[in-house]
């Protein structure tokens, strides 16, 4: 874990983006980046800069669900720009159950004007461009097991908004599959099998429980990927060229 902590320290200090990147984020777009983070979190600066840097070519809007507690931090990072969507959803810290229940409601998806959304967290990052390769799936995240048709991680996941709404309505019981990533993984496979990614595509999207050097993103891989060479690979960011003084 010390290698990951060192990575975050370095990235929070050195991974910068031009002011124009924040200025050019659309208020509304067919693609939306969405994060729930109620905590004052040391890794939030890198998390937001990193994701929006690699999403910039694909015209993603940004919606931040924050708390009263970390509102100042969130707005300092982003410059409190009017083109960014800030939603204060709680006073202080929240719970995992609230997060899961929220993501299994039609109201949540209908509150964000888009066709597809990338859900990301402070323990995820993108390693490269190329997310458009995965736009046609109903739901995609890092695969849990090395087999077809199983759970895909939700901490970094790309979702078709209408597919998610339809899954919720078809299940008609948000308690089915307690964790939201299981809920949507199995829902997509059951109701929209033609939009469910093959195992190899999910591996190319993100590494979490399993390592794949091709993955464009990662989510909390450090508990499962123990080989130091593989860990270093996942902490290598590609095509990052911005210089602070440029």
UniProtKB/TrEMBL annotation:
InterPro entries linked: DUF5672
DUF5672 domain sequence ranges: 96-208
Name of the protein in question: DUF5672 domain-containing protein
């Amino acid at each position: 874990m010390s290698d990951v902590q060192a990575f975050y320290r370095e990235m929070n200090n050195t991974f910068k983006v031009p002011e124009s990147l924040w200025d050019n984020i659309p208020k509304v777009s067919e693609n939306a980046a969405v994060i729930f983070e109620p905590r004052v979190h040391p890794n939030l600066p890198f998390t937001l800069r990193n994701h929006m840097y690699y999403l910039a070519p694909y015209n993603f809007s940004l919606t931040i669900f924050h708390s009263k507690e970390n509102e100042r931090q969130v707005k300092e990072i982003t410059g409190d720009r009017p083109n960014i969507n800030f939603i204060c959803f709680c006073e202080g810290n929240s719970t995992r159950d609230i997060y899961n229940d929220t993501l299994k409601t039609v109201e949540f998806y209908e509150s964000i004007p888009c066709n597809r959304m990338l859900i990301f967290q402070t323990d995820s990052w993108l390693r490269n461009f190329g997310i458009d390769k995965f736009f046609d799936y109903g739901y995609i995240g890092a695969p849990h097991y090395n087999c077809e048709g199983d759970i895909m991680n939700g901490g970094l996941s790309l979702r078709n908004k209408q597919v998610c709404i339809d899954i919720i309505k078809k299940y008609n019981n948000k308690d089915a599959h307690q964790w939201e990533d299981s809920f949507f993984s199995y829902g997509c496979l059951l109701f929209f099998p033609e939009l469910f990614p093959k195992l190899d595509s999910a591996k190319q999207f993100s590494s979490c429980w399993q390592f794949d050097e091709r993955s464009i993103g990662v989510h909390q891989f450090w508990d499962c990927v123990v080989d130091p060479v593989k860990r270093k690979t996942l902490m290598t960011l590609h095509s990052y060229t911005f210089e602070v003084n440029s």
